[in-house]
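A brief tutorial aside. Many learners find it easier to grasp structure tokens once they have seen a single protein encoded end to end. The record that follows does exactly this for VWFA domain-containing protein. Read the sequence first, then the structure, and try to relate runs of similar tokens to stretches of the chain.
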Amino acid sequence: MKSVWLICTVAVAISVCLAFNIDTTATRIFTTEQKDFFQNKVLQLLSDKNNGTLVTAPEQLGPEETCTSDLNLTHRCIIVPEISPADSPIPIRHFGLSISEDAMRSQITVCSPSAVHPHSGNSSLNKVCYKMKLDRGPSTQEQTNKSVEVVFLFDGSASMTEAEFNKNKDFIVEIMESHRDTPVTFAAVQFSYTVHKVFDFNDYDAGRALDKLMKEKHLKTLTMTHKALEFVLDEIFDNNATGASPDVTKVLILITDGDPSDTDRRGIIKRYDDKNITRLVVGVRAARLDKFRAIASEPKHRNAFKIENFDGLTGVLENLQEKIFTAQGCTAPLAEFSGFSAVFKKDSLIVGSVGSNSWRSFLHRPQERMQGYLGNSISIGKKNGVPLYFVGLPEFEQTGQVVFRHRCEQWTELQRIRGEQIGSYFGAELCSLDVDSDGSTDFLLVGAPQFHLPQVKKEGRVYIYSVSDETVLESNQDVTGPSMGRFGTTISSLPDLNGDGLRDVAVGAPLEDDKSGAVYIYHGNRQRGIVSTFSQRIMGKNIDHGLKFFGRAIFRDLGEDGLPGVVVESHGAAVVFRSKPVFNVLARLSFHPENFDTLSPDTNVALVKITACFEKVEATKSKVGPVSSALNITYILNVMGQASQSMFSQTLELRDENTCVSYSINRANYVADTSTPLRIRLNFLQPDSESESAVLSVDSEREAVLEIPI
């Protein structure tokens, strides 16, 4: 008799579809009135005394509103008392628009960008931050007022009459009066052939400026303009003895009735440009437009004014006041919407200011100010032990830009990356990713939520850049949103969800599905940052039909069960998701007895018993204990080259580490062709992982072979 080999092949088919191990059936939803920005930021707290999720409501809790905690203290409220800036009766609102936790988890900082400072008939905004110890509530307040230093450099040459000289003084007085009780300070210098300081910033602060100005005598000689500009820079702006500060916005107002008698042979205009000092020039009467416009700052046509006589100074007064207001509110180091973003790096709080520097933005560290196009979005990292700072400007030159800096002894710019499409909002969201959790940043993810492909109706793109050992950002891949929904509005690095040892990523598309919103989960990848195909799509309307803009903010969470979770913000609600444990399952086949009779006349006698055992090993690190996971197991016995086959099907609940099932095979199950080997194919899958308490890993073993000699 010839030998017959029974060959058993195991194939594992795993259904991941659009649901993996974020549990969408057992969520916690925190809601408030939807008129507000509610919980614009969410922060998970992990400390000895405080575990939970801090949710801010930037427009909640006016003086007539109340905040209540529930009896079980599953949530409690911390009310920030109503305060106003020293120079304004307007209460500060929007606390919690940015929030950050220090490295030691000992305190948090909650900021508002809406501290109003009125002046000149206008108002500007600044940040105010509270440092809070969680067991005591709000403690200290940090509020930094913007400052602008203005120097009047006015012509005292012999070409003007005494009456015209006095109109110069009146003009200066009007501007100073219009900026009383604001962070603007003034100094004045008269120039002719010689240069004379009339009053400095100390005099202005002490109330002596007006008296000194009124007593100033008319010099009546030549117009040595560039010499005077050099004097103002060296002896006023850069001289601490005058009360000047090195870290404020500086403005020069030059009033002249004639062309310069000297030339810029010492490069004084370039020095002003290098120091970013704004220069506003008023040319009166005979002053040639091209001559004094060369002194003005860019854009020169907006910062140089020509009038026919000194009576015209009144006409440019409002224009110059607006220029000073602009300098104070849009180019000061702490300017419009400071406090819009914030992040801790060790013991340093870094605050982004999106409206600074003509809306090119700014990055601020308390006690240390820097100029730069920074602040709309901030992400931090580390490479080779050196701190890395990534900052975004989504509106820079219409395409957006990301600036990459590091800090050793000082801030050093390493690289700039520009977006590829106008209006894409490239850099609106940044996420640094340490994919293997070794303490070194591996990738930077950049969101461009308005990137659009109208032909295929897709909107939003996430760009993935690898951070090389030489600290260079290198383009790796990009992922485009599957629909019109502002994909990439938020990007969040999550703990390892699926147990493969790599961090995962969540991406929000808050306008998807008619603004109900969606969140996409991507598994980490060592070479590419993330797997290009999402593992799970969480639709806001499937969680609650009332959710809108679901996914506009995403934060990581960690429950007491040791499993990571996700907190997703929508308009008026925060949804807390838990993840499910993930298991690898190894299938093994065996047979008994080893020898059996294939020639028995009774075809119903069992020839051999096939046993399938399933070993279950958790990939995640949960503390939930035994769990069950239903797996559909289908046996298909097929004789190679024959049409006859048998099929066995059963659903198993795998509670223990090992679960086995057995089936008997008789002669009726196959054709006794001893020249043809038999093959058994086994498939199993998890048909509905969304409703189960555990999930089968996509990396689970998929094939095995068993040979049986007959």
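Self-check: The first strand starts at residue 5 and ends at 12. If you spotted this yourself, you are ready for the next section.
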